[in-house]
Write a structure and sequence with these properties.
heterodimer; A: 293 residues; mainly alpha; two-stranded antiparallel sheet; 9 helices; 3% strand; B: 501 residues; alpha+beta; Immunoglobulin-like; 4-stranded antiparallel beta sheet; 17 helices; 43% helix; 17% strand
């Protein structure tokens, strides 16, 4: 390998100048980058220098250079959220003040309440009640026509939301299904009353079931809360046992389990965590799921 | 190496069978002024197209108090497109698909009939470049003067002319960008806002972008856009056929070319002599700098200016015009072997097919537009839960509705669900029409979201077309209570699997 000449010879075959270097008889053609490309490249380098000064760029031991305009994407989000909150503020204030009647009459306010409620439902309620309020075992379906507490009016829903069910709120909705297996009823009696309750919902009952005993046990132990006709009590949260809706399931084993060990689901008192306007919006939204009476 | 040396080198290489390099330095083109039939056509098209572009936003169209009164308006804020009597909502954007198909096939049809009509006369790149050439010619003089000035050192005069030229170009470019933003907002209001520096930043940004692109593409890039950047010449070359009329030099008449004197002498001696006097006028007037005498080529935009140039020369010489003219490839071949030229055939399978596609797509679009509903209904079945069991054992399905009222007035609608009684159907807002079906009131040019619940009693479960079906087709009808106009939407009613009582 030797450099034979520093003069930029022209290659005979292509007419292009060479770089002047030669390696074992091989010479390299001098084909520089197009100028426009090169200048854009230089411009990007200059741009990068400016960028380092203006924007956050260089990591330091425990921090980083902030840049002269002190930009941060987090601050941008915070500002945008604040802007959104202030844009919504008049409607939120109106919502907090308005009665449910006023909300229902004002199309604009109703639309706003439904949208706010939908967002709040997704954030707070969907984990237990499901995205569409369909519920699951132990978590009531909010889209059906059956209500444990109250009759599904907006005020009832608002009360439940604000104070919760069996929560720490002093005004919480309170009511318990006791554990009848703790020496109150014998297993045979529990089995009989479970069969009897199933028969009330027109569910299939074993032919050997002692419905008479079941009826007697029901009248003595259950009717106090669930009613003589077993249609439940909305003030105590005791479910209607004659309908087709079963919070925990309608099979005999589940019913026996409920009677033996008792039931008592808990709903947080959202009044502690959400503002009054949001709770109103939630009530309005929950009604649109289908549970309206 | 100078450009000339480079090109000479290239030609040598090509002659030696070596591929030309992929990169060629650009040669500045100084098109000469020309007058004639095609120049006149180009002027008329230039004035008409630019006139429409610059002034269309100012045309008013009364749509009543609730709608803008601009004839052509793309209202991004309110998601509406207005074109005279037509109003398009975002979900009707498929009309644009139709327009694009029409535009493409019209381009094909133009090409099948007369080659690059689009490129030569109608393309914005051509029209604006043509305007920029005119400005340049007016300020700096014709081809010869401009070439001389380009080779000279700067003088006070040439500097003043250059400044004036670029200023004029920038004004045109700025007006071009300014006209663009007027299509997106009320034009007179926006002009006032822009002039008083109260316009939205996005408007100034777009004006700046389009000022730059117009100035750059029409002032500097010019024919390079057509030759290197635009895909249409490549597609066009693949779509054209031997019956398409193209700007063509008639070899049979023109060759052998030579000076007037030389060819006259040849003619007297009884030797073959062509009509082409090799005056290069056709090359000098060409905006892309091609020599049409080398035949059909990809740089040629077929603007017809070389026809005007050649006809002018032939007229002066007392020879018949048309040495360069619109002709077909078939005739080029036929003339080569001494056969008579054929009349151009406009009606052929290709043109008929394109015309048919245009007629069908255009017909469909007119049909769809004429029968366009002024109301709309979109239905989404709840996904979670799919159905809800009611306390009496019945099943309820819930749907989210969106009703659209495309008229500028309040309207009342009812929704009927075929196969169900009014009592089985309820809306979340709970209003009912006199007929018992759910009632909805939608504001002018607005949409309304609501929820609809359909209940199937325990007895009716499984009463569908098949007892094993857990999903049945149902249809919703949105009925305008005043006009009775209907929109029908299909969906499903879902019940638990195997439920039959």
């Amino acid at each position: 390998m030797s450099v034979t000449s520093h003069e930029h010879e022209v290659d005979a075959a292509t007419g292009t100048a060479t770089t002047g270097h030669e390696w074992d008889g091989i010479r390299e053609l001098n084909t520089p980058l197009p100028k426009w490309w090169l200048y854009i490249f230089y411009a990007t380098i200059v741009w990068a220098l400016g960028y380092w000064v203006v924007y956050p760029a260089i990591p330091l031991a425990s921090s980083f250079t902030k840049g002269v305009i002190n930009y941060s994407s987090r601050a941008e989000v915070t500002a945008e959220v604040a802007q959104l909150t202030s844009a919504r503020a008049p409607m939120v204030a109106q919502l907090a003040k308005a009665s449910f009647d006023e909300i229902q009459k004002d199309t604009k306010l109703l639309t706003f309440a439904r949208a706010q409620g939908k967002a709040a439902f997704g954030d707070n309620c969907a984990p237990c009640h499901g995205a569409g309020g369909g519920g699951s075992k132990a978590f009531p379906n909010l889209a059906d026509d059956d209500w444990l507490w109250g009759t599904g009016t907006l005020d009832d829903i608002q009360t439940t939301l604000t104070h919760g069910i069996r929560s720490t709120d002093p005004q919480t909705r309170q009511g318990n299904m006791p554990a009848f297996g703790d020496g109150v009823l014998k297993p045979a009696e529990i089995s009989a009353v479970a069969d009897y309750v199933r028969s009330l919902s027109v569910l299939d009952v074993d032919k050997t079931a002692d419905l008479k005993l079941g009826q007697k046990v029901f009248a003595e132990n259950c009717a106090a809360c669930h009613g003589e006709d077993a249609r439940g009590n909305h003030d105590l949260g005791s479910p209607n046992l004659t309908d087709q809706i079963w919070l925990y399931g309608s099979d005999k084993a589940t019913i026996v389990e409920g009677i033996t060990k008792g039931r008592g689901g808990m709903m947080p008192n959202w009044g502690e965590r959400l503002d009054a306007g949001t709770i109103k919006a939630l009530a309005v939204y929950v009604r649109t799921l289908g549970g309206a009476r | 190496m100078s450009v000339k040396q480079e090109q000479a080198r290239e030609m040598e290489l090509e002659a030696a069978g070596v591929d030309a390099p992929l990169y060629a330095s650009r040669q500045q083109i100084y098109p000469a002024a020309v007058s004639g039939r095609f120049r006149k056509i180009k002027w008329i098209i230039l004035v008409c197209t630019l006139g429409v572009y610059y002034f269309l936003p100012f045309i008013r169209w009364d749509r009543g108090p609730n709608a803008p009164s601009q004839a052509v308006l793309i209202d991004m804020d309110h998601h509406r497109f207005y074109f005279f009597f037509i109003e398009i909502w975002p979900q009707e954007v498929y009309y644009i698909t139709g327009l694009l198909i029409l535009a493409a096939v019209t381009l094909f049809l133009m090409n099948a009939i007369a080659g690059r009509v689009w490129c030569g006369y109608l393309c914005p790149q051509t029209v604006w470049t043509d305007l920029f050439f005119a400005v340049e010619r007016l300020i700096e003089g014709d081809r010869r003067e401009r070439m001389l000035k380009a080779g000279q050192k700067w003088t006070l005069e040439t500097i003043a002319q250059a400044v004036l030229k670029h200023w004029a170009w920038l004004m045109i470019a700025w007006w071009t960008g300014g006209a663009w933003v007027l299509y997106f907002s009320d034009a007179p209001t926006l002009v006032y806002q822009l002039a008083t520096f109260q316009g939205p930043v996005v408007a100034y940004t777009w004006i700046a972008i389009l000022t730059f692109t117009t100035y750059f593409f029409a002032g500097f890039m010019r024919e390079q856009v057509c030759t290197y950047m635009c895909p249409w010449p490549r597609i066009q070359a693949a779509l054209t056929d031997e019956w398409a009329l193209n700007v063509t030099y008639r070899y049979d008449r023109g060759e052998p070319r030579g000076s007037l004197k030389k060819n006259d002498a040849l003619r007297e001696a009884g030797a073959p002599a062509g009509d082409c006097v090799d005056c290069h006028q056709c090359v000098y007037v060409c905006p892309t700098g091609v020599d049409i005498r080398q035949g059909l080529q990809i740089d040629c935009i077929q603007c017809g200016l070389c026809i005007d140039a050649c006809d002018t020369v032939m007229d002066k010489l007392g020879r018949p015009t048309g040495l360069i003219g619109y002709d077909t490839d078939i005739n080029v071949k036929r003339r080569e072997i001494g056969q008579a030229a054929l009349k151009p055939r406009l009606i052929r399978a290709r043109t008929l097919l394109y015309a048919a596609v245009i007629a069908i797509v255009g017909g469909i679009m007119i049909g769809v537009l004429a029968t366009r509903h002024d109301s709309g209904l979109a239905v989404i079945h709840d996904r979670n839960p799919l159905f809800v069991r009611l306390s009496d054992g019945g099943i309820r399905n819930a749907y989210t509705l969106r009703l659209s009222n495309k008229l500028p007035e309040d309207r009342a609608f009812e929704i009927r669900v075929d196969g169900f009684a009014p009592d089985d159907v309820a809306s979340a807002s709970g209003k009912r029409a006199d007929t018992g079906w759910p009632l909805f009131t939608v504001g002018p040019d607005q949409t309304l979201e609501d929820r609809l619940f359909i209940t199937l009693s325990r007895k009716a479960l499984g009463r569908g077309h098949d007892h094993d079906e857990d999903k049945r087709d149902i249809s919703f009808r949105l009925i305008d209570l005043r006009s009775g106009a209907q929109v029908k939407v299909k969906d499903h009613f879902i019940q638990p699997e195997g439920e039959k009582r």
